[in-house]
Amino acid sequence: MWPAAQPVASLTGVTAYSISSDVLNSSIPLHLPDFAAHWPAVCAAKQGQPAINDYLLSHYSGEPLTAYISEAGSGGRVFYNTNFSGFNFQPVNAKLGQLLAASQDKAHWYVGATLVPRWFPQWLQQQHVPALAQQGKDPLVSLWIGNQSRVAAHSDLPQNLAVVVAGRRRFTLFPPEQLANLYIGPLDVSPAGRAISLVDFTNPDLTQFPKFAEAMKHAQVVELGPGDALIIPSMWWHHVEALSSLNVLMNFWWRDCPSYLPSPQLALQLAMLSINTLPAEQKAAWRAHFEHYVFGEGEIAHIPEHLRGLQGSLTEPVARQVRAELLNKLNR
After folding, report:
1. Among candidate residues 154, 188, 180, 176, the one with its CA nearest the CA of residue 269
2. pLDDT, tens digit, for every residue of 43-80?
3. What CATH number has the domain bearing residue 96?
4. 311/309 Cα distance (integer angstroms)
5. Confidence band (pLDDT; 50, 70, 90) for 106?
6. Number of structural domains, the chain?
7. CA–CA separation, 10 vs 36, rounded Å?
């Protein structure tokens, strides 16, 4: 995409049966060619669009899907409208067959984060990653289906294994620390629930977004075909382009932490709510507290073990007690 962009590191010979815990939990993006070449859906996709259409429909529950429909002038970009009063697409409920029949139409359509067990209940019997279960992971599994589309750069909390089933997709990734150079939009209102970059990656305006030039120096790019996979580490920014008349992607999301621990996103929102309007001196004081208690390794040996609470072992009883106390205080 850009001369300065680097290719994502590639590991050959890794499959859905052989992927290791180190690869699944990689802290850098990894391209896994032919990771799912044996999947029946991938084999169908390689036979052509009619074959993958038939395969999808044979596993589809029949329940209507929510699709984002935008006109040809959008270029497939899933984004805000021109004055940021809403979005440049309309959500519609439609059956999968109707959407597949429209793949060649001028309008762009995009179905995101469709839970596989609900809409494609038999799918996982043939398209699965045994290594995930063998390593004790219980991922959220989704399908993403559509024609040409562009999803703005965003980050996700879980670790992500993304597998292209049909079509081609181009991913452009940035490390988490490029946040300040990506011109991220509002946290509260976004096309799909995650804050997105406001930069148009196909034609970046460096006059309006000058710091994006620095982000471009750190970009990693990979293009995936049927059966290829990509490890997207937690909180890495990724821009996704679907390049074919029909694109199907399957992804697995998981977190390697106990389910009773809340999302860091909640902590961010609460911190913004309680700290952002403080005087500068008080904000600096709280920065020191966060560095000590959250991001540092604050010394606790001087605190009796039974009094350490959040500073000690985060067992489920401790976590649930703190959550209950927070809820009680926030609801006052």
Report:
1. 188
2. 999 999 999 999 999 999 999 999 999 876 788 999 99
3. 2.60.120.650
4. 5
5. low
6. 2
7. 15
18: helix, coil or strand?
Answer: coil
Does residue 222 sit in the same domain as residue 168? yes
End position of a domain, from candidates 195, 228, 254: 254
> Do 53 and 123 fall into the same domain?
yes
Query: What distance in Å separates the CA atoms of residue 68 and residue 146, rounded to the nearest whole number?
Result: 9
Torsion sign (Cα): 174, 22, 158, 123: positive
- Based on the domain organization, do 28 and 176 belong to the same domain? yes
Q: Is 69 helix (H, G, I), strand (E, B) or coil?
A: strand
pTM over 0.90: yes
Cα separation values, 37 from 66, 127, 253, Å: 29, 10, 20
Mean pLDDT of 190-218: 95
Sign, CA torsion 96/101/104/108 = negative
Tokens 């605190």 map to which residue?
Answer: 303
Cβ-contact 65, 93 below 8 angstroms = yes
pLDDT at 260 > cutoff 90? no
pLDDT value of position 272: 95
